[in-house]
Amino acid sequence: MSITFDKSTDIFQLNTKTTSYLIGIADGKYVGHIYYGKKLDNCQGGYALLRTEERPFVPSANMRDKAGFADGFPYEYSTAGVGDYRESCLSVRTPQGHRVCELAYLGYEIFDGKRELPGLPSTFEIVGAPAQTLEITCKDAALGLTAVQSYSVFEDSDAVVRSVRLINEGQQPLYIERALSACLDMDDESFEMLTLTGSWARERHITRCPVTYGKHAVSSVRGCSSHQEHPFAALVTPGTTQDAGEVYAMHFVYSGNFLALCQKSQHDSVRMVMGIHPEGFEWVLKPQDSFQTPEVVCVYSDQGLGKMTRTLHDLYRGHLIRSPYLHKKRPVLINNWEATYFDFDSDKLVEIAKDAREAGIEMLVMDDGWFGKRNLDDNSLGDWTVNEEKLPGGLPALVERVKAEGLSFGIWFEPEMVSPDSDLFRAHPDWAIQVPGRAPTQSRAQYVLDLSRPEVVDYVYGCVAKILRSADISYVKWDMNRQFTDLGSAFLPPERQGELPHRYILGVYELQERLVTEFPELLLENCAGGGGRFDPGMLYYSPQIWCSDDTDAVERLAIQEGTALLYPLSCMGAHVSACPNHIVGRGTPFETRGHVALGGTFGYELDITKLSAEEKEKVTKQIGLYHRYNHLIREGVYYRIASWRENHLYDCWEVAAEDGGEAAVTYVQVLASPNSRSRKIRLKGLDEKAVYRLEGTEKIFAGQMLMYGGVLIEPQEGDYVSQVLHFVRV
Ligand code: DGJ
């Protein structure tokens, strides 16, 4: 890792383990992108890639064609108003109503370490893996606006993380209409754009489309990162696979509205930008105030998607997730949502706990329905007092009973919401996000609390903390079940209404920061109607996030494949549920449900008291597998071997120990095919020189043979059948 500036060539060079990122200063003023790719030892001649010698020349050589220059120059941070008609990162309105901005290079600083981003989640250095940072300062003198573009690299990573700080050094307020976090201008290489898209119950499916002239975007204006589109985009060269092809990826460390856009220009260059979605956004920057954009993680891979995946997994495990649970085996939990929905009481929960403990489950999580008068989803959010009709003696009594059965206890909250039918709403209707004079839109019969308002943040925190202080609670599932509408805050002045969506997310971050600070041992799992806020921002607070409300083993294959493209398996909340599945009505073997859930955090989401003795034995066996493989799932290196989404027959992934000492391969035959022969699977990440035994057999394989020849998987009878093959070095 190193960051240098070569005065003789005017080039900044950021080196990661295997990549280089080059930035040049053209004309002493324009900060331009030269190169992102394989690591370079020598970047002489690189300046020419800024094309300052070609028509249209730099403005100092030819002021006449400045607009032509601006519309073609590969900006590191694009601005609007002086001739760059491509997608802009920064748009600023003055009190006079003008929207012109041009940043000119002022200077730079290179320093060891990395600054925290105030109020925002961000990557950090750790002992043994320090960071280095480059800050490039630019200024629009007419506006009095300074922009500090920050780039950090880490000793042990191939990622470059970027963000921007805006400071108003002028005399009058500025209105920031857009402030994206990163821009990457490159020549087109017939790129395809890879994104993750979906919906509720089918989140993060991998989508790929050619980049043609014009703009292609994924985004959210829903107030959260969303089920529908994910704050991620990658440009890949044609034919990119898991192991080959070039990938330029951006992933946003943020949980609110976002825009990830790529645009192919008239000159066949491609610009990729990422940041807070400008729609509905406006930030008032008073003189001396500053605004910090969230962080974007950039990854380049010349070895296909697999290398990008592993770079992100390592970065998130090493430099983003702070929870003490990161490297710990999480307790196997059982959640009562699909078991009982709202229809439960203490006795029912204790009954579940008893059978759960016998099967080897370690924690009971009480989901929605324990507070206020909530027997349906249309009331009581905001009234975080225990319903003693359901739980006589309150939480302490229930928790003691559950603990007496040998399980620890977890609880569900939806702190950001309020039901119209709640004491909270009756007392403080103005605490809900809404526009005066309009009946606010309901969604799941609830409103969103205005977390831009400090007293609301305090109230919400007080409620959650009071419950957690009242009993021995080891785990919290933090849910968020509706997206934004009717944006209006009774707290913010008219000129600051555009700040609401971002201030809301800052409120969420503040709440979770307070929570993990007061309860450092708490296992926090984020959730948003399934996986509606599964993003790197939330990982800063919780080591795991509920992946999807769809727990069907087959539906989960595509969801978990897309999620694992970016996130370590240890982050993906995954449970075994009952069949027919509550969302799709499909029946799948109990074993397959277990094998798929083992690819995530692992737990149960069913009424164990209704299982047959035979099924309960299967639960115990599955938990045995969890204990056997969890160190691999949690700490190992993930490889995607085959995708059922692509081949329509089978799915396969592998997790190998970092030293290649063992590997677990999960194979799901989704559909049986007639008259088929065995299927060859090639493993990855093994020790080529070693010999492996297939656990449970006497079969011996050379590491090389497994990696380059492969292992044969016999066809099984029936659909939706699965197996886990465990190879151990002998
Ligand atoms: C949505 C979550 O994803 C579910 O797991 C469950 O907690 C419900 N909300 C409860 O309302």
What does the model show?
With 730 residues, the chain is of the alpha+beta class. It folds into 3 domains: 311 residues, Beta-galactosidase, Chain A, domain 5, CATH 2.70.98; 303 residues, TIM Barrel (Alpha-Beta Barrel), CATH 3.20.20.70; 89 residues, Immunoglobulin-like, CATH 2.60.40.1180. The chain is built from 14 helices and 39 strands. Strands 6, 7, 8, 9, 11, 12, 14, 15, 19 and 20 form a 10-stranded antiparallel sheet that branches. The longest helix is centred in the last third of the chain and has 23 residues. The radius of gyration is 27 Å and the shape is globular. It starts with a strand and ends with a strand. The model has no long low-confidence stretch (mean pLDDT 97). The structure holds (2R,3S,4R,5S)-2-(hydroxymethyl)piperidine-3,4,5-triol. The site of (2R,3S,4R,5S)-2-(hydroxymethyl)piperidine-3,4,5-triol has 11 residues, from loops.
